[in-house]
Amino acid sequence: MSDSDFSRASDAPPRVTPRRPKFGFGAVPRHWFGGSAAMTHVVNGVCLLFPAGERFFVRSVRHYEGQIRDPRLAADVRAFYKQEGAHAGAHERFFARLEAQGFDVAKMLETYERLAFEALERRFPPSVRLSVTVALEHFTAIMAENALKDGILDLAHPEMRRLLEWHAAEEIEHKAVAFDVLAEVNPSYALRVFGLLLATASLGAFWVWATRRLLAQDGVDRAAVKRDLARMRKERPIVRRVFLRGIREYLRPGFHPNDTENHDLAAKLIAELEREGRFAREAA
Fold first, then answer.
1. CA nearest to 168, candidates 40, 269, 19, 32
2. What is the pLDDT of residues 85-100, one digit of tens each?
């Protein structure tokens, strides 16, 4: 299989734009997703992974910043850093609300960061870390599309809905940045697939672990979780609509994140948030 199959799409995506969001979480209830403890903690579980994960993405891309020859990509990389930093900060402000509700978030984050970054990250060279980042960005872009297209957040508390919709829109906006960096510095299909394997295993394992820890702290038993999920489920399970779809798309040799055109979803949501005065633009 030729590495030339691993090329960037000819149509450039919209420029990545950093923004400063304004959210307030003081009124967010304990079970903010339609009153469902299970669905709330499924989403809380992945949210707990975001800040440290996004800082990992930035480190992985930054390592290769000096090798980027395309000026447009270099500018989008710098904007990507700012977007990911804003995401991390917004979610950490929400974590303070979880702590106020009695969840031991700090201890969970300490365990997660020790395992994922002090142990696992250091075991792999920069090329693998960038490849893992690319695969995780693909999964995140799929989750983002689902959130904006399929009404998944319809039952969420308004402030959490806007937080997650804003995050989703910017994930779509920068979904090709890390991929294009990898394509420029190390266009190896084998490397890309190895990163996918590590990303799938790590995201799935840490997401399940975080969700179970939150449910346990909330005193929700397994039977209640099953009832809750059956009541709330509107469509295919996460494994099918995120992981299986993501793997299938990603394994195609000529895959590029922009093969799925969904930038219009992001642009529409950003326009709505701008009309609400949710954030102010800053220079890229």
1. 269
2. 999 999 999 999 999 9
> Could you count the other beta carbons within 10 Å of the beta carbon of residue 137?
24
Average pLDDT of the chain, as a whole number: 91
Start-end of H helices in 63-104 = 71-100
Q: Is the dihedral of CA 163, 214, 106, 48 positive or negative?
A: negative
Enter the pTM of the model: 0.91
Q: Report the 10 Å Cβ neighbour count for 161.
A: 17
CA–CA distance, 40 with 213 (Å, rounded to integer)? 13
pLDDT (0 to 100) of residue 223: 84
Q: What is the CATH number of domain 36-281?
A: 1.10.620
The CB density around residue 149, as the number of other CB atoms within 10 Å, is: 11
pLDDT at position 239, please?
A: 76
The answer to whether the beta carbons of residues 190 and 127 sit under 8 Å apart is: no
Give the dihedral sign, CA 35/40/41/42. Answer: positive
Ranges of H-type helices in the chain: 37-62, 71-100, 105-113, 126-149, 158-173, 177-185, 189-217, 222-232, 238, 245-250, 263-276
| Sequence-distant (≥ 6) Cβ neighbours of residue 172 within 8 angstroms | 141, 144, 145, 148, 262, 263, 265, 266
What is the per-residue pLDDT for 12?
A: 55
- Residues contacting 238, CB < 8 A, separation 6+: 42
pLDDT in tens, 199-240: 999 999 999 999 999 999 999 988 888 887 776 665 556 777
